[in-house]
Amino acid sequence: MIPRYSRPEMVAIWSPETKFRIWFEIEAHACDAQAALGVIPKENAEAVWKARNMTFDVARIDEIEAVTKHDVIAFLTHLAELIGPDQARFVHQGMTSSDVLDTTFSVQLARAADLLLIGMDRVLAALKARAFEHKDTVRIGRSHGIHAEPTTMGLTFARFHAEMARGRARLVNARAEIATGAISGAVGTFANIDPAVEEHVCAQMGLTPEPISTQVIPRDRHAMFFATLGVIASSIENIATEIRHMQRTEVLEAEEYFSPGQKGSSAMPHKRNPVLTENLTGLARLVRSAVTPALENVALWHERDISHSSVERAIGPDATVTLDFALHRLANVIERLVVYPENMMRNMNKFRGLVMSQRVLLALTQAGVSREDAYRLVQRNAMKVWEQGADFKSELLADPEVTAALSPAEIEEKFDLGYHTKNVDRIFARVFGES
Amino acid sequence: MIPRYSRPEMVAIWSPETKFRIWFEIEAHACDAQAALGVIPKENAEAVWKARNMTFDVARIDEIEAVTKHDVIAFLTHLAELIGPDQARFVHQGMTSSDVLDTTFSVQLARAADLLLIGMDRVLAALKARAFEHKDTVRIGRSHGIHAEPTTMGLTFARFHAEMARGRARLVNARAEIATGAISGAVGTFANIDPAVEEHVCAQMGLTPEPISTQVIPRDRHAMFFATLGVIASSIENIATEIRHMQRTEVLEAEEYFSPGQKGSSAMPHKRNPVLTENLTGLARLVRSAVTPALENVALWHERDISHSSVERAIGPDATVTLDFALHRLANVIERLVVYPENMMRNMNKFRGLVMSQRVLLALTQAGVSREDAYRLVQRNAMKVWEQGADFKSELLADPEVTAALSPAEIEEKFDLGYHTKNVDRIFARVFGES
Amino acid sequence: MIPRYSRPEMVAIWSPETKFRIWFEIEAHACDAQAALGVIPKENAEAVWKARNMTFDVARIDEIEAVTKHDVIAFLTHLAELIGPDQARFVHQGMTSSDVLDTTFSVQLARAADLLLIGMDRVLAALKARAFEHKDTVRIGRSHGIHAEPTTMGLTFARFHAEMARGRARLVNARAEIATGAISGAVGTFANIDPAVEEHVCAQMGLTPEPISTQVIPRDRHAMFFATLGVIASSIENIATEIRHMQRTEVLEAEEYFSPGQKGSSAMPHKRNPVLTENLTGLARLVRSAVTPALENVALWHERDISHSSVERAIGPDATVTLDFALHRLANVIERLVVYPENMMRNMNKFRGLVMSQRVLLALTQAGVSREDAYRLVQRNAMKVWEQGADFKSELLADPEVTAALSPAEIEEKFDLGYHTKNVDRIFARVFGES
Amino acid sequence: MIPRYSRPEMVAIWSPETKFRIWFEIEAHACDAQAALGVIPKENAEAVWKARNMTFDVARIDEIEAVTKHDVIAFLTHLAELIGPDQARFVHQGMTSSDVLDTTFSVQLARAADLLLIGMDRVLAALKARAFEHKDTVRIGRSHGIHAEPTTMGLTFARFHAEMARGRARLVNARAEIATGAISGAVGTFANIDPAVEEHVCAQMGLTPEPISTQVIPRDRHAMFFATLGVIASSIENIATEIRHMQRTEVLEAEEYFSPGQKGSSAMPHKRNPVLTENLTGLARLVRSAVTPALENVALWHERDISHSSVERAIGPDATVTLDFALHRLANVIERLVVYPENMMRNMNKFRGLVMSQRVLLALTQAGVSREDAYRLVQRNAMKVWEQGADFKSELLADPEVTAALSPAEIEEKFDLGYHTKNVDRIFARVFGES
Fold this sequence. Notes:
Number of domains of chain A: 3
Oligomer: homotetramer
Family (chains A, B, C, D): Belongs to the lyase 1 family. Adenylosuccinate lyase subfamily.
GO molecular function (chains A, B, C, D): (S)-2-(5-amino-1-(5-phospho-D-ribosyl)imidazole-4-carboxamido) succinate lyase (fumarate-forming) activity; N6-(1,2-dicarboxyethyl)AMP AMP-lyase (fumarate-forming) activity
Pfam families (chains A, B, C, D): ADSL_C, Lyase_1
CATH class of the largest domain in chain A: Mainly Alpha
Number of helices of chain A: 20
CATH superfamily of the largest domain in chain A: Fumarase/aspartase (Central domain)
CATH architecture of the largest domain in chain A: Up-down Bundle
Strand order of the largest sheet of chain A: 1-2
Organism (chains A, B, C, D): Neotabrizicola shimadae
Enzyme class (chains A, B, C, D): lyase
């Protein structure tokens, strides 16, 4: 988690203050449930809530932990300092530290997911707006970095929208995966605590009870969560890569917005570098780097070992903060992306009609020329364009073997751009439910 | 994909024969749809189906590819050899190679997922059977590899069942992710082919039309698929790790089935090594190794580059074949696992009651002793057990500070195993819907 | 390991035949050493060598393994079938299977490394030749995909040479890492076999004795080996990415060689796609995918568990075969790369002098203008080029604030290309020791 | 980088203060070199050094960067504030930001490597001391977690020493890989700056000049560096795993030192958990997570893109700080590890002699029994021990087929532990050069 790549909203979820606040709420709700079951006195349960409006002193808790070497005991000791040892006597009864820690981690990840969904919605909104804005802005489609056939800028935005929408659906699933809580005791048997406590705490904290836990919530859930973030990060890289390509000097079909005061480089003032999307490419690598350790965290020894903990202290904040920042940076890039339709048209015409070769090939076949022959005819004329800078249409019109199969009007018609965009509305309807 | 770690059913999905069969079906269905649209003659579409009962000559196709350096063209050439060039004239019309290749890959991955689901169901059935068989087989729960509190072997199987059931649900999602087809032409605009062809082919091949494709189906789908396999593999490692621990010489609570004729080691004939679960641990690493390249495959250049292709030629078969094999090996291990309840009981009694310390701690607190004091009392007596091999219960009964708070009968009661298993039925009901 | 991405030389290293041949040699050399120590009869040791010219029947060994479920025992049984049970009686005495398996794996990896070094040498030779060929071929240097300052194509080749030379040195180190053998018995104590046997076998097999082994050779060695392959693969990706960029339609500064008969695409005959370098990009991902499982293989339980074995059966051949193929494919691409110097010059002139802005900035500073002011002056004129397509030099000559600091001749001089190439020889001397 | 897993010495290397100090030194040394070349006035170069004893105001630099959006310009602006705009006029002349940034990163990584080497030396010293302390402490060697043959605790420490020593040698190599600097201008051509400046700056900063750079130092160097850290981390995991196994309740051959006041768990006061080594296992995963993004950073576009930058801002500090902490935590664990030789002996005797079966097998073969028969005889008696808890030696002595081949004294001798430790000194001599 690097300050320059973080937004305060997400950072706040991972602050010590937030953590202790959630710990407190879990303990207090557990007391309520224990009181309702008659396990602890009602007044003690109520008394715990006094701390609701108090401030947990992070430095003091750290100080206690330095002695006890146990974070939850340190917190409980501090809580007792706040509400009085007598009132605090029944707090945490029958629970094990992981009941608090794991349930808290779930709350934090669920909240993080909620923030990420907001970020994704912003990206989706931007992509949709730009897709409709450029629905009919024709540009050349490229495979292998080589001109293929015309497409539109709107389709590019639309496919990124579809990809991000899939990412959103995956994140909703991933959120559900980790939104479980466990208050099940030392090895998950509820020996010392009634399952009703777990149910109450989970309901209050917006979680589902973990059907079967050990000392901890099973880590396949978290692995799935971080793997999902990794896939979303890769989609961000996908969009970033497209924009970086568009901004290349020789292509220049779009540019990241360049604020008037911004300096591109200390040495080359004219340069407008796609630094945001390059940065997003790097951030995607960082988010993805959480996937492997999360997968390695799944196989814990018996009812738990604590090897996962240090990993999660890092990747919990790091992956969510970085992805959150990246989503908003991406949204910003898309919202403000400067698109150059004229450059798109200029690029498309670079090879004077060559990109229409597929249509001509098809027309020849349909006119009865064998596939092999049609291929040969098209290739022959295409090579003249490629090697001598000839105009493809003119060459075709001058090739007697071609004109034997196709009339001049038919050849002309093959160079109509509308041919390539005729299904854009249908595709938009598939993606957006409207066009 | 290593022969010794593969099952023929899954290998068959990835054979050249299967691949060409699917290519053929896609081309033939596409011809049907084109004929229905009036784009190509009905009789040509029908003629293509002649090849339905013919055998595609893999060696011949390879031979042609060696010349053309293009696999789909090689196949189409061979198809024309089989059904006659005239009949084959309209095959592939308006399509691009990736229409065939990507749709085929989806069919293969969907079929692979179906096989994997069968493997998971076998694992689930085995886990459920063993869970009910050992629902009440008490063993010690361990955190950090250290004895904690009693649990049951049935709960161990049940939690693996819950984890695998989650894995199964994830795989169903992942299957849906990749079960899309695309027949959308060179850059996905349907310029040369009507979307109706895609709809027909997908319906016939059991796929959903990709809402918006470029030349290819977007690779975030595949990334999600392989990431899901990676999570399932990690769950296999989790189960394997538990069994490896149980089979340790000093623990010996369970053993992989050891067939009478089997030789454990060339040097130490008495050894029964958990080689299957160790192997599963390695196989899990292999399946997971597909995740990162799948994530790196997402960001293709513009409407496609072919960098993903070599990766998928490897991880497509490798990850599915290996996971398929691992699931059946795992099922076999679980089905035949030899469980030693007496050893479990013997291990649990190793520290003469020490594992009940949590109950005693709680009882002291409830009897009005402060948390800090209760902790001190329990720790004092526990250390005698630890260091001098004393019996925990006897020590407690002899400690006046303890007996001042708890009667001998109350202390006795804390060592009752039923206390720890009383909620097993409730947990089973959560996991299995029955208990 | 995919046939289409493999070369027979490397595949042969991993064949069962090669493996059994190495097993045999290790066993036979061990017998020699045992005989020299007087542990086994000399005539038995000599008799073993009878099998030197016999063929090991892989199918027969597999058949035996199907019964014994142990590969080394199966081999030894077959060896006894070949040379007679009496003669074979002392084979493998005091050894454990891993002595054979691990030492064999080292031999295979060392041979694989030797082949890889040959591949790297071919790449290095190609890069050097092309570097000198294009030492003075000026092209624009780009940062962020944006034109920066002139450089030469030779420098591009030269830096790839330097990178590959580093890779070669790393591979030499990595080869040394894994070129150790161990004949140390069940847990590495030499209880049943004298260290002299290990020394003799290693000397004969071209290995160093592992200073301290357990049942196995420590896996940090292998992790380092595969990590090194991963770094080299990334360097291949680096070169491939450069070429893919150069071949982009809008850039077209170089192209992969396109054989006359080759078909680029079934649909677009004019296309010449950089499919080899795209493929190399994917192959690099595959080689890298071996790194994480190799790292996960390091932490084995106690004196060994067998989890590493399945991983190595896959990544051993896969990573080396794929990298070997990639190196030769890369060499081929570089050797035959078609370079377009005129296009390089045309691209460089796209922004009419703008790339010289750094020089002008510097000249202004040196002429006494403050850094801030110089920056402002350069930026002001650069923006006119960018936005209005003006000529940079002309604008500068027309800007009184600029000409107040720099004379027309001085401005002129800033646009001399020789300025940028003046140190090429010095750099070449650093890289190649000659220029 | 998590405060609880970091040491201030390593954190300091990555502080903004340190970074700006290095930036300053690079700029100042560059001015010296430029003055020596006569490019800038000598007095300006000298004036820059005035800032040597000044404090760079991090907040002020951040403030400027918020406007300029360029960190190096922000720093230079602040430097001009400190030493006066006139004196600062020639600072950074002919340089590009990356000259400063990349050279600084090299200095930081080299310093980090130096600290890591100190940590490794501490680990090595601890391992050596414990190895000699327990050179003759016999314990059972285990393969597959199953008892195999006796070994000694000293050999365990010794093999970890050998592994860490390899790690140290790798780190020395890795340090050399990244200890290069570049002052070569916008695309690495030295167009605007003489190579002599680079040479001077590198010499002053303890670096080697990068033979050929672009705008940046090539990232294969950094990939190798982080890959090396990943291998070392895996070795830490290897040692940690051994200790975790030894501390298992059923094994208990060693324990992490447990300070008197330490609380193991809030619920189970008797527990002494191997939390440090579990934590090290997790930290190893974190360090390794830097490897993949570092590999992905190698392929930059043309003369550079900035995608690597955000990755390095994270993994630079994270991986080195975490590994540094882990090395010292590991050293601490080893130094204070509580070893239980009696428990080792007790564990070894668990299967009453069964672990000697290999010796008996060998003796039978040497006595003329066929390998197959010997195997059968040993297995027969071993199974009685395994299944009925019999004593292995007694069973052998009572088996007439065995005694037909071996005398009672010969059988007795097979159970002598000295047989297994006889080569320990030779192995120690290999590892430590002494024994």
